[in-house]
Amino acid sequence: ATPTALMVGTGRGAQLGILIKGPEVLESTRRVDTVVLDKTGTVTTGRMTLQKVYVADGADEEQVLRLAGAVEHASEHPVARAVAAGAEERAGRLPQVEEFRNVPGQGVRGRVEGRDVAVGRLFDALPTELVRAREEAERDGRTAVVVGWDGAARGVIAVADAVKETSAEAVRELRALGLTPVLLTGDNRAVAEAVADAVGIDQVIAEVLPEEKVEAVRRLRREGRCVAMVGDGVNDAAALATADLGLAMGTGTDAAIEASDLTLVRGDPRVAADAIRLSRRTLATIR
Ligand code: ADP
Ligand code: MG
């Protein structure tokens, strides 16, 4: 590989909206056969909005919203932003949270109005009406977060975001390059399947914790695949670093960008295909 050709490739990348850490990155792109795509913020916009609130028998909807919103207000997760904004809109000013704790890939905890509140996937036992609520939300392709305090689940909040307009085209382009797309997410299986269907992906790895995302990438590599990972979140950083090629959404977190080899400046997943095409072309010129 001549340095000049690689430099030209790097310059062309910048024109396409691809920031390349170093010219040598183009070489590792050549062997990639599998592209793992994170769901939230990569295939979907990550701009979630509150869709519906369900409460347990005897619970008060406004209180569920107020306490959940107060804790989520301290988090920057897309789910948290949706819950906090929706709660403020429906229940008014949010109270203060104390002892806030983030549980990566699972939710948040904090103390509000003298109660120990948890929001997310942090409850094992749910009353039947909330089990049904969660099923309904997930059947509709929404992410269901459970709200509770002092040890009991009191409500379910359904949030959803939209698939990016360019995601289906991106998957078609990746397939046309002979690559196998895989959807990877911490979200529940029903939601993941709905998104995968919408964009044309048939291999789905769902309900994984942030540290399990790395394990999923390692497993694919052990199976002999050469893996590119595309992600945006703090929870994707380790997996991006572990993949043969890490591609970060420029619209994502600094942690993801730092862990990656390439940054897709505009956050358009089609540019992942452009990057692979560019490196193949650059290397063909060299040979
Ligand atoms: P993804 O892999 O799709 O980017 P994450 O790993 O960040 O998603 O989160 C996985 C799941 O954990 C979410 O779908 C949600 O159910 C739950 N979760 C994470 N953070 C929060 C939060 N701040 N509030 C509520 N639920 C959360
Ligand atoms: Mg994400």
TrEMBL record:
It is found in: Cell membrane. Signal peptide: none annotated. It comes from the Bacteria. Belongs to the cation transport ATPase (P-type) (TC 3.A.3) family. Type IB subfamily. This is Cation-transporting P-type ATPase B. It comes from Streptomyces chartreusis. The gene is cadA. The chain holds residues 427 to 713 of 762 of the full protein.
